[in-house]
Structure formats: structure tokens, C-alpha cells
Amino acid sequence: MALLQAQNIEKKFINHIALDDVNISIPENSIYGLLGPNGAGKTTLIRIINRITAPDKGEILLKGRPLQAEDVNIIGYLPEERGLYRKMKVGEQALYLARLKGLSKHDALKKLKYWFDKFEIQAWWGKKVEELSKGMAQKVQFIITILHEPELLIFDEPFSGFDPINANMLKQEILDLKKRGATIIFSTHNMESVEELCDHITLINNSKNILEGQIDDIRKKYNSNIYEILFNGEPEKLERSLNPHYEIIDKKKVNGCNAVRIKLLHQTSNNELLSLVIPAVEIISFKELVPSMNDIFIKLVNEHKK
Amino acid sequence: MNKIKLIISREYLTRVKKKSFIVMTILGPILFAAMMIVPAWLASIEDTEIKNIAIIDESGVFINKIENTKFIKFDYLENQKLKDIKSNFSELNYYAVLQILPSISYEPSAVHLYSNKQSSFEVISHISNAMEEELKYKKLKANGINEDILKSIKSDVNVRTIQWTDEGDEKENFTEVNMILGYASGFLIYFFIFLFGAQVMRGVIEEKTSRIVEIIVSSVKPFQLMMGKIVGIALVGLTQFLLWIVLTFTIVFGIKMAFFSDLGKIDTQEIVAQNLFENQSPLPATTNINEDFASPDKISLILDKIKSVNYPLVIGLFIFYFIGGYLLYGSLFAAIGAAVDNETDTQQFMLPITIPLILGIFVMMNAIQTPDSPVAFWFSIIPFTSPIVMMVRVAFHVDPWELYLSMGILVITFIGTTWLAGKIYRTGILMYGKKVNYAELWKWIRYKS
Fold first, then answer.
1. Do the chains contact at B216 and A97, CB–CB below 8 Å?
2. Does B9 contact chain A (CB < 8 Å)?
3. Which residues on neighbouring strands pair with residue B73, listed in sequence order?
4. For chain A, which domains are there?
5. What does the alpha-carbon distance between residue A88 and residue B14 come to, in Å, rounded to a whole number?
6. A206 — alpha (psi -120 to 50), left (phi > 0) or beta?
7. Nearest CA to A78 among A97, A62, A106?
8. Which residue of B has its CA nearest to A105?
9. What secondary structure letter does DSSP report for A269?
10. Of the candidates B400, B418, B353, B410, which has an alpha carbon nearest to the alpha carbon of residue B379?
11. A27 - beta bridge partners?
12. Interface residue A50 vs chain B (CB under 8 A)
């Protein structure tokens, strides 16, 4: 079931269209990747979901009903450009922001204690934010984002500016949050993290979403049917063994053995290919070259430019 | 509604807890109290030193004509030369030597006061007054005017201004008190709008540059954040104002108790205070003239002057115009803060705010002289200057319809500016790295929410 749906969202600014008829459907308890080049409209869409701006047309549905003002209390949002009051003390500030999300003072304090203990940052409670390092401030921001146990979490470029240790911690926490039932939207350029974390993605380019679905389906769809064979023996012998259903894309030497990339042209099977080449050469490895999200991303964006 | 309360309390508490607020709150009253007490204190220490002044009157006109005062004693020296005194001035223990040349009757500058220190203004003015009087007297007498006439023409003129009310009563105005009150309240409003308006602007810029604003507006509406800030800072302003008043009076009374109790001023103050509370008349700056004529002595005249002001009305209007003016300008300051990336970019937008306020101050000074002039009238109706100018006119007398009109327009205008500012604010706080001009602001206003 979809936790959140965006239907026919349109948003115009004076000189450009930020979002044009965007439709997405975010399944409950999924990690949903919002991909797209800079300026594609990701942040605008996120702001519309957060009710920071309103769409010109279209509607956001939460659990099937239109999104209401009070619903912001079940959303946790970590913006791309994030900061804290520099002169305010960490604990005071965390408490203030938690209460703005609708938590009572008592609950907020209890939960803050839990998280400050978990991250071992109790000592920062009375410090001013300007005394913290950037990484420390990011931890505090993360805690503030998830403190009210939101059903829907939105991370806009969460890994930008995080050092590898914090980024890893963040990944772990995101997976934990999913385990506990939360739905997570995150927008990013970082395709590795998409492959690692996301179940679903949408690709927004030039204010339109041009691709949406489960990550496995998308990969299958963009599968190019290319296989790589590493072998010992003469490449010519291998070449001769193939029939016109297969096309050799390139040949090269890898670590002292030969490698070829072969494209299956007609819906032939892997086994058939293997049965053809086994008599010819000694196979070391055989693998399907699955397109990375990065490849799909670049390919689609370039196609749309044309 | 709870969220806006949270914002107001954060804005209020973080500012009230700041060192600068505490320092200002303590320093302000000390300064105000010093302004009231130091002149009195200076006068009192000046008076206690007895100054002996030698007079060498070469004209012979002023012998024994310059009267001693409590602390200035004159010593008429005959047949002594100035240079003799000069050579042993320090042993003679004179404060100064006054030399009057024979040419005094036709040359006014033929008087010299020699001393080894800067002579006090008090001494100089006493001498010149006495000599002027004496010369005038002599000249009139020389023209055949008899001494009795001369004595009888000496009189102090004190103009009392009396106003006929519509009900046919006569009411006495006390212009000086009204002037001081009007000037002080108009200027305070001007000062507070600038001081706390700028705080609103700086607060918005701080949230924008620290980038916390996006986190906050994901919890509350931008308009709530803006109003929370404006209201929170207004409360800071009112707190500071009240603390200043309370502390100033405490300090002034405390010092008077400790050092000036022999001057009997405490009693006067108490009477003033009593009279203030007893006075409940509905119109400003008036007392019944008959009462007044019945008690012509000086103390009660001063008291009447002070109590002639309708304090509940003036204080009530002060708070209204302070809040109204502050809300009007505070929202504009917030919009400017949202439109820029840092404080140095605020310049171009500050001008339209600064000009009406400064204009208000100029018209206010003019209105003190002529509170009913057309200029004063119109500027007390126009909402951008009315908080400053109307306070001066209120201290004199304003027809109720003018007051209602001015207050009504102010309320409508601040609702309007807050609405407009909210639109600019909403767009501006999330806009970075863009050079904003007026055309751009106009586009923001026209965005649909």
C-alpha cells in the first residue's frame, strides 16, 4: 500500500517550471530514492511534501487522503542545506525543535536522553552549537530529524558533507528505521548509496519524472544482455564457435587472461552460449554485466537531452 | 497555536537571557537617572563653595551695586591697581578679580574678569545681570523717570494658556509639560521601532544564513515563524521599557532618599504620585481652571501642571502606538531580512523604511510648536508617521474622531503590511544567492501560496 502519493504535481516559478505533472507513489515501509540531476526539481517536490510550499496543481495524498497541516508532525525532514542556531545550546535547541514537531516537553527530554546516550554525546548538551564541529552538528541534526519517531522520513542529500564514518552510521540508522516500520524518502546523487539502500526509485529530470519503479525491475528493464567471459585460450577460437545470435562487443587482456564481452542478440539463453564456448576455450569466469544505477541515470538523462 | 507560543517564548527568552539585554537594562536606567540627578548634584556642589570676588571699579558706578549671593561675595577694593593684585593673587585668596573700566557707560565690553581658573557660568551671568540692571536703572533715571515707577515696572510675566472646550468650560493647558511629554513619547516610539525592528531583521537573517529556517518551516508555517518572532521581540521591547521605568524611578528615589532628603523633595514627589492616582479626568492635559486660581502658590502650580496630564490615556495610547507602529515596521523589517543573504545587502531596502521614520521625527518637532497645523494633522493620520506625530498631538489636545481615524488606519495598514511582508518572507527565506531587487520582491508578492 502506498503511504504517500503525489498526483499530477505542477509547480511553476516565474521563469521556469520546477515540476510538471509529476506522479509518484511511495510504498509503505520502503526506502524510496528520489534521483535526478541538479535543478531537476527534487527539492521543490520535497518541499511540497513537507508543506513548505504548495503546488500550483495536483495533490499529495497521505494514506489515501489529502495531506493536512497536522501531518507535518509525522514527517521528519533533514534538508540539504541544514543548520542550527549557532548561539543556542545543543540541548535547549534540540528540545525546542522537537517540541515544534508536537512532542511534549517530557517525552522530548526522555527521547533526547536515549539518543544522546546512544551516540555518546551527552557531554554536548550544554555546549553552544558554534562550539561543535560540522560532523558533531550533523549528528545532532540527525537526532532532531528522527526524534519524534516519524512515519515518513525525508532526507535531502543526506550524505553530502558527512564524513565516511558518519555517512556509514547514517546508512545503518536508515536501515534500522526501515526495520522499525518507517518509510524513507531520500534524494541523492550518490548512486552507490541508492543501490545499497533503495527498494524503489524515481528519476526526475527537467521537472518531469521519467522513470519510476522497483529498483530490481528497473535494472531488468535496462538490462543490456551483455555477458563477460574470462578465459584461457585463443580468442579467435572462441569467436569462431559463436553463431550470429551473439555479438562480440570488445576483446581485451585482463590479468594475463583474455576477456570478451558478448551481447545476446535474440532471446537466447546463457546456457546456450556456454555450451557453444566451452568446447573452444577454458572458461575462468562468466558473468552478466548488470547496468549500474549510475549507467541508467546517465543514459536516461542524456536521452532526454536529445 | 501552541507552536506559535513556543516560537514566541524562544524568541523572548533567548533575547532576555542575553548579556547585552541585561547590560542595556541596567545601564539604561543608570544613564537616565544620571541625566536627572547629575545636574542637580553638580548644582548642589557648586553652590557650597564660597567665592570671594574682588572688584576694582574704575568707573565708580557700581560701588555696592552688585549684590552678594549665598555663595558669591564681592569685595570692593578702592585705590588698588590690578597689577598689584595680579602679582600676589594666590595669597589674597580671591576667586577672581572684576575690573570695570570708566568707559563702561558707552562701551559694554569694558568689563574684565581675571582669574587663575575658568570662571563659572553662574558667576559670569550673575555679574552681567546685575550690571545690566544697574546700567538700565541709571539710564532710565537719567532720563527723568522716578524711582517708584522704576520699581513698579519690575514684574514677572507668566503666560497661562486657557482653552475653551466645546462644553463651554475653561481648561488651563500647561504647554511645557505637554511638550516634554509629547517629545519624549514620540521619540521613544521612533527609537523602539528602529531598535527592535532591526532586531527582527537580524533574527530573520540569522535563521536564513544558519539555514535552520528550512527545518523550522517543515514544522510550522513561515507566517507563524515570522509572527512569533515579531511578537516575541515586541515583548522583549515592552519588558525592557517597563524595567527601565521601574529601575529609573527606583534609582532616582533611592539617591534622593540617601543624599537629598534635606531638600524636602521627597514630600513633593509623594504629593505628585498621590495626585497622579487621584486624577481621573477623561480629557488630556487639562485641569479645571477655578481650582487652579484658588491655589496660586508655586508648588501647587507645578503639581497642577504635572497632574494636568491624563496619564491613563497617554500611557494607553503610547502602548497602542508603540505596538501598532512596531508591528507595521517590524513586519517590513522581517521581509527585508528574508530578502537578503546578509546584513550588508539590506541597505537598498532600508531607505524606504528610514525615510518615513525620520520624516516623522521632523514633523514631530514641528508639531510641538503647532500641534494643529495641517502638516501635523496629516502626518498624524498617515500610518507610517502617525505613531510618532500623534503622540505629540495627544499630549496637547486631539479631537476623538482624529484619534479614532488615525488608530483605525494604523491597524488596517499593519494588517496589510504584515500580509505583504508574509508573502515576501515566505519566498525569501528559502531563496539563496540571488541578488534581489524591487521587481523581484513584487514577483514574490504575486506568487500564489
1. yes
2. no
3. B52
4. 2-220 (3.40.50.300), 224-289 (3.30.70.1150)
5. 8
6. left
7. A97
8. B6
9. -
10. B410
11. A2
12. yes
Domains of chain B listed by start with CATH number: 50-147 (3.40.190.10), 171-446 (no CATH)
- CB contact under 8 Å between A85 and B6, yes or no, is no
Which pLDDT tens digit goes with each residue over B309-337?
677 788 888 889 999 999 999 999 999 99
B120, B75 Cβ separation under 8 angstroms:
no
Q: How far is B203 from chain A (nearest CA, A)?
A: 10
Instruction: Tell whether the torsion through CA atoms of B9, B14, B17 and B20 is positive or negative.
Output: negative
pTM above 0.90, yes or no: no
- Convert A36-49 to b/e letters by CB count within 10 Å (16 or more is b): beeebbbbbbbbbb
In the block, which residue shows the cell 500564489? Answer: B448
Does the CB of B218 have a partner CB in chain A at under 8 Å? yes
Cα B258 from Cα B271, distance rounded (Å): 19
Listing DSSP states for A47-68 in one string gives: HHHTTSS--SEEEEEETTEE--
Q: Which of residues 144-203 of A touch B (CB under 8 A)?
A: 144
**B220: contact with A, CB 8 A cutoff:** yes
Beta bridge partners of A213: A201
Whether B212 sits inside 8 A of A144 (CB atoms) is: no
The model's pLDDT over B354-382, given as tens digits with 9 standing for 90+, comes to 999 999 999 988 888 888 888 989 999 99
Task: Note whether B214 contacts A85, CB cutoff 8 Å.
Answer: no
Contact A85 B217 (CB under 8 A): no
**Cβ neighbours of B23 (radius 10 Å):** 10
Strands (E), B34-143: 51-57, 72-76, 96-100, 111-114
Judged by CB atoms closer than 8 Å, whether chains meet at A86 and B6 is answered as no
Chain A residues whose CB is inside 8 A of the B212 CB are 82-85
Cross-sheet strand order for the sheet of B51-57: B72-76, B51-57, B96-100, B111-114
Asked if the interface predicted TM-score (ipTM) of this complex is over 0.90, the answer is no
Q: Tell me the one-letter amino acid at A288.
A: E
A52 to B6: CB separation less than 8 angstroms, yes or no: no
**CB B341, CB B432: distance < 8 Å:** yes
Q: What are phi and psi of B448, to 5 degrees?
A: -80, 150
Under the banding of pLDDT at 50, 70 and 90, the label for residue B291 is very low
Distance, in Å, from the CA atom of A139 to the CA atom of A127, rounded to the nearest integer, reads 14
Q: Does B246 touch chain A (CB under 8 A)?
A: no
Residue B102, all three cell numbers:
570708566
Nearest to A85 among B7, B212, B219 (CB): B212
CA distances, A136 to each of A109, A129, B128 (Å): 19, 9, 76
Q: What is the pLDDT of residues B17-73, one digit of tens each?
A: 988 899 988 888 888 777 777 776 776 665 567 788 888 888 877 877 788 877 788
Q: Which residues of B touch A100 (CB under 8 A)?
A: 3, 6-7, 216, 219-220
Selecting from B212, B219, B448 the residue whose C-beta is nearest the C-beta of A101 gives: B219
Instruction: Say whether B206 and A83 touch across the interface (CB within 8 A).
Output: no
How many whole angstroms separate alpha carbon B94 and alpha carbon B89?
Answer: 7
Give the whole-angstrom CA distance, residue A205 versus residue A209: 6
Tell me whether A14 touches chain B (CB under 8 Å): yes
Rg (chain A; Cα; Å): 24
Crossing angle, helix B386-395 and helix B347-369, to 10 degrees? 10
H or E segment at A200?
Answer: strand A200-205
Contact A99 B14 (CB under 8 A): no
- List residues bridging with B72 in a β-sheet: B51
| Vertex B292: Cα angle to B290 and B294 (nearest 5) | 75
Residue A98 per-residue DSSP state: H
